[in-house]
Design brief:
There is one protein chain. The chain is of the alpha+beta class. It contains 8 helices and 39 strands. The strands form 11 sheets. It has a 5-stranded mixed sheet, with no helix packed on it. The longest helix is centred in the first third of the chain and has 22 residues.
């Protein structure tokens, strides 16, 4: 009888493993042809040369200097032994994947989406394309020659501002920083719409990769007659924005289902002009990849008031649940929850409870009375901060006492405390939890891995746009002095007093940080968390640029002066004709204020604002642990292990143990079939962890900190790990004590490739 029972269990296990392998059979896990490794965004590779027995022998095989002083979060992709990277002041560069030598350079692609590009090839492989967003347009480049394909779209350009139901001339931002996802002959695209009132609507769209024609569009803010229209005011589709997929898209190629995580409606923190649950904001949307038809959705936050965007890649896994093999999809969130669904039906694998949450005290606001809480798996981040959690390290005694007193006076009723006139605090925060690039999986085993951070966000609403010009005497200066005055009122709170950067925001000081045209493009249209400053004219922007350039000679400047690389196999410059032009913005308004409501719309007379936690930009106020690498077993709905994500050296010197790094917002992972997890961090290290325990098996130094996604591939019979290393090495969360100056930058910003020594390869 025992033998029969054992055989039965064995047959069940074999059947489950066979089903899991079948579910993921269509994915090629031996290449890194796409952002995130492939359509399923699992960051998983089935390459066996590097394993637990030899990972400690990895060494630098080659490096490719970026040739500038910019920070890149670009995920390299590799096709036919050719690697494509972004470097040399926003140029697209093709490298020999085995040696790092340049093959071709398409230079001067200012405005190119920062996180990656998409690759497509025809079935006969005669047509191979790199597709990317740049300056609110789509373009395509021949992957073999590096030259623009002018038959794509209108003479090489597809205007992403068109077809959104708004006047294209009034749209400031729409292009995504993530590269979208190729499926068959389509490129599926989200958008980055900005955070302002009346920002761009976040329609999800699919374009033909050959012609550039729009094939389908899904309204994330429903129009009259569409599902979800009743969850908004009747005219909201005319003016509401956001509800966009600005993060990562995952595709189940076998079923033809695309999964889109969506973000908050705008304005993020005050929603009196969008009363209702606001579908399809803060959802996981499952759409037919060929037609855009909605198959199912689940909303993780109703009527978001906290900027709890979903942006991490949905992970496709196969699990054994309640005696059945289920193809599932998980979605990590900023609020520290991991939701898990049947990927075909959308049914949660474990119950999700709607629990009462605090009401808003703001005039005109109606916070949703309940929010969804998954009963399993458990959260991977802390979800409340009190005065007792103030950091015992880093802060001076005076700072610590001041923060304890300040936090004790805040309205602090947990994860869903609505912003108001008094300060509120949110944890993990608008920039905490899991973000783009930070989720990965071993798909067939049902294991999901996340990097996560706790980053408190403090809100306080008022009638003043915090990013508009501060009330001050008009500047009578000119040139750099005028630029200094404008910088102090508009930029200093995020980028520091002299452009040195503050916390996660990049340093700007230095003559060659950005050329004037590129600088103007970023200021005018915004990028990532930075809003568009549409109310600054060309003269004001030039003055700011001149001021920042003057800071390069300052004795307190820590930004290394780097001459932008030139020469080499340059095959083209600037992309398709007209692609570098920044569209004229006809309406000028404050960064978060937005334009007037359309005529006839019944909308609130007042607009309230907060600085969305960028100021005070102080992630270090909370005690450790600050960040972690977390493993989930979704067969059981449990956390398998949790280990620190890197190390803050200065905090460790003060006694912090197992604390992780600060500001671990975008640290990507690689999972291997040989039981390894690779992650690079802003402490200037890359590490290999044991998939079973999380233990660190190998550590290597990088010339700079690393953000974004690494890649793993095989070239000429050798397995490589390539890591972008061009970000500042952060310590103490960017916190400087009185009289302290930042450490000067050293080293060379590079893409760094690791491999086993030739003699160690199997």
């Amino acid at each position: 009888m025992k033998k029969l029972r054992a055989k039965s269990v064995w047959f069940c296990l074999v059947a489950a493993m066979t089903a899991a392998e079948s579910a993921h059979a269509g994915q090629d896990y031996k290449t890194w042809k796409d952002y995130g490794g492939g359509a399923d965004n699992s960051h998983y590779v089935e390459l066996t040369q590097i394993d637990k027995s030899n990972v400690d022998k990895l060494e630098i095989a080659w490096t490719y200097p970026t040739g500038d002083n910019r920070s890149y979060v670009f995920n390299p992709i590799v096709v036919d032994n050719v690697m494509y990277v972004m470097a040399r002041n926003s140029s697209l560069v093709a490298l020999d994947a085995a040696t790092g030598k340049e093959i071709w350079i398409h230079e001067n692609l200012q405005g190119l989406a920062t996180r990656g590009i998409a690759h497509w090839e025809s079935k006969d492989r005669k047509d191979r394309r790199l597709i990317f967003a740049i300056n609110n347009r789509l373009q395509a480049i021949d992957a073999r020659t590096g030259k623009s394909i002018l038959t794509f779209g209108n003479k090489g350009l597809v205007d992403l501002r068109e077809g959104l139901g708004r006047d294209p001339k009034t749209i400031v931002r729409v292009q995504p920083e993530s590269p979208g996802r190729v499926f068959e002959n389509l490129i599926l695209l989200g958008s980055s719409t900005g955070e302002a009132y009346l920002s761009t609507p976040g329609d999800i769209r699919a374009y033909d990769v050959v012609t550039g024609k729009l094939v389908w569009s899904f309204h994330t803010i429903p129009h009259p007659g569409e599902e979800g229209y009743e969850t908004w005011p009747r005219d909201a589709w005319k003016y509401a924005g956001g509800t966009n997929t600005w993060g990562e898209i995952t595709v189940d190629e076998k079923r033809g289902i695309a999964y889109f995580p969506t973000g908050s409606p705008t304005y993020d923190y005050y929603g009196a002009d969008r009363i209702g649950a606001n579908l399809f904001g803060n959802c996981l949307l499952a759409l037919d990849a060929r037609t855009g038809k909605k198959l199912w959705h689940f909303q993780m936050v109703h009527h978001d008031l906290w900027d709890y965007d979903n942006n991490a890649a949905p992970q496709l896994i196969t699990v054994r649940h309640e005696g059945k093999v289920i193809d599932a999809v998980s979605q990590a969130t900023k609020q520290g929850f991991l939701f898990v669904f049947d990927r075909v039906t959308g049914k949660p694998l474990w119950p999700v409870e709607e629990r009462p949450v605090p009401a808003s005290l703001m005039p005109g606001e109606q916070a949703w009375p309940t929010q969804p809480y998954p009963t399993a798996p458990p959260p991977y981040a802390r979800q409340k901060m009190t005065a007792d959690d103030v950091n015992p390290f880093i802060l001076t005694p005076e700072e610590r006492a001041a923060w304890k007193e300040r936090i004790s006076k805040m309205r602090n009723e947990g994860l869903f405390t609505p912003p108001g006139f008094e300060e509120t605090i949110s944890l993990p925060g608008a920039r905490g939890g899991s973000n783009w690039g930070t989720s990965a999986a071993n798909p067939a085993k049902g294991l999901v891995y996340l990097t996560t951070q706790d980053w408190p966000t403090i809100y306080k609403l008022s009638l003043e746009d915090p990013l508009a010009a501060r009330t001050r005497a008009p500047s009578t200066a000119s040139g750099p002095e005028q630029g200094r005055d404008i910088y102090q009122s508009r930029c200093e709170s995020c980028h520091g007093p002299n452009g040195e950067g503050s916390g996660p925001t990049p340093a700007l000081a230095g003559t060659n940080r950005l050329a004037i045209d590129a600088f103007r493009q970023v200021v005018t249209t915004g990028r990532a968390k930075m809003p568009a400053f549409g109310d600054l004219d060309a003269a004001a922007i030039s003055a700011i640029h001149a001021f920042l350039a003057s800071r390069a000679a300052s004795p307190t400047s820590t930004s290394a002066s780097v001459a932008v690389a030139s020469g080499g196999p340059v095959v083209a410059s600037g992309g398709a004709p007209g692609g570098l032009e920044v569209p004229t913005i006809e309406t000028r308004y404050t960064p978060l204020g937005g334009p007037p409501y359309p005529p006839g719309v019944d909308a609130p007379a007042k607009r309230y604002y907060t600085d969305w936690g960028l100021y005070p930009n102080q992630p270090y106020i909370i005690g450790p642990p600050w960040s972690a690498l977390v493993a989930y077993d979704l067969n059981t709905g449990t956390i398998k292990w949790r280990v620190p994500l890197g190390e803050d050296v200065k905090a460790s010197e003060e006694g912090a143990k197992n604390a992780g790094v600060f500001m671990a917002e975008r640290h990507g992972l690689i999972v291997t079939s040989t039981g390894l997890i690779f992650v690079a961090t802003t402490d200037g290290k890359v590490r290999a962890h044991d998939e079973e325990t999380g233990a660190v098996l190998w550590t290597a130094n990088l010339p700079f900190g690393s953000e974004g996604l690494p890649a793993m591939y095989e070239s000429n019979g050798r397995q490589f790990l390539v890591v972008p290393a061009s970000s500042r090495i952060n310590s103490r969360g960017g916190h400087l004590r009185p009289g302290e100056t930042p450490q000067p930058e050293t080293g060379t910003r590079s893409y760094v490739a690791f491999a086993l020594p030739q003699r160690s390869r199997r």
